[in-house]
Amino acid sequence: MTDIASSNQDRSAEIDRCLSLIAPSQPDESKFVGMLLLPRLLQQNEPESVQRVFDGMNFKFIERLLRTNTSDNGSDSQIPGHVLREIAVNVLACFAHYDKMAATQPMADRIPGLSTILTANDPSDTTQEALHTMMCIAVSKEGLVRMLDPDVLKNILELVAETSNQKERQLGTQLIHGTFARACHLLHETRIPSLASALKYALPTLFTALSRLLDKHQDELKFEALDLLSSILPNLPSEVVRKFKDENASELSSWLDGLRSGLRQLLTTKLGDKYRDQAMVTTACLLRYFDTDWLFGTLKKTKQSRRRSEKKPSNRTTDATEADIKFPQLLIHLVAVETRVILDDIHDRRLNEHNLQAVEVDEEKEKRQEIMLPIYYEILESAIQYLSSHYDEERDSGMDAEVLLKIRTALTDTMNVVMELLKFVQDTSSDDQLENDMVAQASMRIVAVYLAEEGYEME
Predict the structure, then answer these.
(1) Rounded to an integer, what distance in angstroms lies between the CA atom of residue 216 and that of residue 355?
(2) Where does the signal peptide begin and end (predicted)?
(3) How many CA atoms lie within 13 A of 29 on its CB side?
(4) Residue predicted with more confidence, 198 or 433
(5) Which pTM does this prediction carry?
(6) What is the mean pLDDT of residues 96-101?
(7) Structural domain spans, the chain
(8) Angstrom distance (rounded) from CA 144 to CA 105
């Protein structure tokens, strides 16, 4: 016991010596020595010692170490720059292990510096350690504001795009997911002007990177971008999106074109439920935030497209432009089919329950249906509203009659299934049950929109 106490006293004395060496008044050589020794003395199972080091830390010098250039050996020191950065990250990682320290302003202020050392395919563990540390810090309002800085976000997104190291990419995407999720959650709970402003200024960087990844990449990065979009977009506060739109009107068209192209590529290929659902969620959110022209606008080119196709050889393949023009029709058809499949399944299940027949419970399937049915309805509602406002029998809208007829048929067939389910629910449910039935409420809304807007239909 005496030896242990003596050892602890010795380490405490060494910590005090290191803190004196890194004091602002000391020359750089002393600070380098102190920083080299400190990581070896810090024990994460001794919070009192770590807190003492944190309280005495020269954070300005930590920042200098983080900002050391790759070729810089740190003033007149013979210590390589990458070693200095690694030391700084190790010290910050030790502090970040404790929630109280991680949530402080000095730690939040280190996020920009930490983001500058991120290196794709880093042979050391420094990049991964920096990402872990940033995750721990990005929990407080101060940490989130720093994380949403466009330069910080750009550094992380570039790492995700450039690295072939799966762990680095995974940590990078987790950091982005967590940052936006926590920021949006806080803003939905309370008004925080600084955080709302930071989120607004982060969105151009996010849209620039993710629209490019979704459109141009044909590898895992396309699905990483889709995953980020489908998790971030549904939670964005509407007021933040409104201001973002107003301040970035000139760039919106380019971003939406890239997102539309990427979504078309995904939804015109065979996808599993997970990625198809993510693509549908992303589509519905973009329609909610940015109206309908960006997606359905090419319907105005369908008449011209048909005329061109009639002049082409029958064996000529469809190019990207023609595929883009046909995308709205394909999407509406796909959503209509998916909607009918879900409604038929819900109807059958409820009919069996009403008749007291055995029903096989599939909680995962039912949960997916509860999530996706409103998403499908939202896309169909947007299509109905677009057609009702842009099609006019008295003038040439550029929309092909055959395309419109196919869309009308898909919508009518779907609405018939919706109304059939609604009739069954109304006949078998009390008013209270009907009021609390989310499927019924969403179905009544889409039917009301359809009946109110069906003036676009051709006679």
Answers:
(1) 52
(2) none
(3) 3
(4) 198
(5) 0.89
(6) 93
(7) 58-70+79-190, 193-290, 302-311+318-389+396-456
(8) 11
Indicate the burial class of 166 (C-beta count within 10 angstroms; 0-12, 13-18, 19 or more). Answer: exposed
Q: What is the mean pLDDT of the chain?
A: 89
pLDDT tens-digit profile of 256-288? 999 999 999 999 998 889 999 999 999 999 999
CA distance 182 to 450: 37
- How many angstroms separate the CA atoms of 64 and 74, rounded? 9
Alpha helices in 355-400 (DSSP H): 363-390
Mean pLDDT of 129-134: 97
152: left (phi over 0), alpha (psi -120 to 50) or beta: alpha
- For the record, the structure tokens of 369 come out as 């249906």
- CA distances 310 to 314, 315, 319, 401, Å, are 8, 12, 15, 15
User: Three-state SS for 109?
Assistant: coil
Distance linking the first and last C-alpha atoms of the chain: 95
Beta-sheet strands, E only, within 301-434? none
Largest CA distance in the chain: 98
